Amino acid sequence: MSDNTYVSLPDRIVDESRSTLDELARLGAQEMLMKALENEVAEYVQRHACEVDENGKRTVVRNGKMPERSIVSGVGPLEIEQPRIHDRRPGRKFTSQILPPFLRRMPSVDSLIPVLYLKGISTGHFREALAAILGDNVAGLSATNIVRLKSEWEQEYQTWEGRSLEGKRYVYLWADGIYFNVRLGDDRPCLLVIMGTLEDGRKELVAIHDGERESKLSWLETLRDLKRRGLKYSPKLAVGDGALGFWTALAEEFPDTRWQRCWIHKKANVLNKLPKKTQPPAKKLLDEMHQAETRKDAYEAYKEFLQLYRAKYPKACDCLEKDKDVLFTFYDFPAEHWVHIRTTNPIESTFSTVRHRTRQTKGCGSRKATLTMVFKLCLEAQKAWRRINGHDIITLLIQGTNFIDGVKEEAA
Question: Three-state SS for 363?
Answer without folding.
Answer: coil
